[in-house]
Design a protein that fits this description.
Blueprint lengths: L1 E7 L15 H17 L5 E4 L3 H13 L7 E3 L8 H15 L14 H16 L11 H18 L5 E6 L1 H11 L16 E6 L5 E8 L14
Parallel strand pairs: 1-4, 2-3, 2-4
Antiparallel strand pairs: 1-5, 5-6
Length: 229
């Protein structure tokens, strides 16, 4: 039996030149997660992350604050987020051509978090439904298979361990849920909070179980740390 904890990264640096870096709030979220892991007595036998800076740094900070800094961090591109920058660069000019009224709203997009989120959700949801194929980032189904192949391979890589952490992003977590649960729906799950936990189990018979989704026990008494972008 193997339990896998899918943990979304802390808040990134929206509007900054390096978006991929954790924001000060994202660092606090990661520290809070680590302290909760320590208090809950949760220790990981193996720890993975994607290649993104925000994924790796969330893992490093959380492990340090849960007294697990000695655990080696294994970086695997299977758990990378979709290439949102490339998708937006392709889609936004075409959205304006399609709907010129959007031009004003798209001005200073990176300076307005709510405006960015509305546009980002629209672009990504259209990609999930098969649009923006020429953006060059592949199709959603290819992305979903890549992520779940990575998840599915973890128990085989670590046959003797019981608990594995994967520090990743909202896209890979959504892709995994859609691979496991027929009623997960289409599109990204925009309710996955930063540093939230989704728990899976591969039981002794090889079946996959969903034990918990979007869990934020470490943020229940810290509403000021709850973010989704």
């Amino acid at each position: 039996m193997t339990d896998i904890y899918l943990i979304r990264h802390g808040q990134a640096s929206f509007g900054e030149q390096n978006y991929d870096r954790l924001s000060p709030l994202g660092i606090r979220q990661s520290e809070t997660l680590g302290r909760w892991l320590a208090d809950a007595g949760i220790r990981f036998d193996a720890v993975y992350s994607g290649e993104r800076e925000r994924q790796r740094d969330t893992a490093t900070i959380a492990l340090a604050h849960s007294d697990q800094s000695q655990a080696p961090l294994l970086v695997d591109p299977a758990f990378n987020e979709l290439d949102a920058d490339r998708l937006l660069q392709y889609a936004i000019p075409r959205l304006v051509l399609r709907e010129p009224s959007l031009a004003t709203m798209l001005l200073d997009l990176k300076g307005n978090r709510d405006r960015f989120r509305r546009v980002f959700e629209r672009v990504v949801d259209e990609w999930v439904e098969g649009g923006w194929d020429a953006a060059g980032i592949g199709r959603w189904e290819e992305f979903r298979r890549r992520v779940f192949d990575g998840i599915r391979g973890l128990p085989e890589r670590h046959p003797s361990v019981q608990r594995i952490a994967v520090f990743t992003s909202g896209g890979p977590i959504t892709a995994t849920l859609q691979s496991l649960t027929p009623d997960a729906g289409r599109g990204l799950d925009w309710g996955i909070a930063n540093t939230s936990i989704t728990r899976l189990r591969r039981d002794a018979s090889g079946d996959w179980l969903l034990l918990g989704r979007r869990e934020i026990p470490h943020l229940e008494d810290a509403a000021d740390l709850l973010t989704h972008l």
